[in-house]
Amino acid sequence: MSDIQRYDSNARLSRIVVHNSVVYVAGVTANDRSGDAQAQAADILAKIDGYLASVGTNKSRLLSVQIWLQDIDRDFAGLNAAWAEWIPADAMPTRATCEARLAASDLRVEIIVTAAL
Fold first, then answer.
1. What is the pTM for the complete model shown?
2. Rg of the chain (C-alpha set)
């Protein structure tokens, strides 16, 4: 019997892990990397909706969010615009945003979320 469920796993990671009714989603980046931070964040947040739904939860159940931006001065406002359109006003999770060197030069945003089932 396994109390840990892993989904969409490969040689490096599981995209989603569920344990004790908590859902952990690995870092998510945009499929279309040609856009600015707002466009990339909107793409990422839509993907997160799908990942959460695939295990039976949704963004209203978010507990914690970690966001990395390639350039916080350039990208913070665009990220926040996409975030404000996406997140329910009555379900704000804890959140941290920082600047980081991301895995590819065309990535502007990466987001990790943790949610309750």
1. 0.96
2. 14
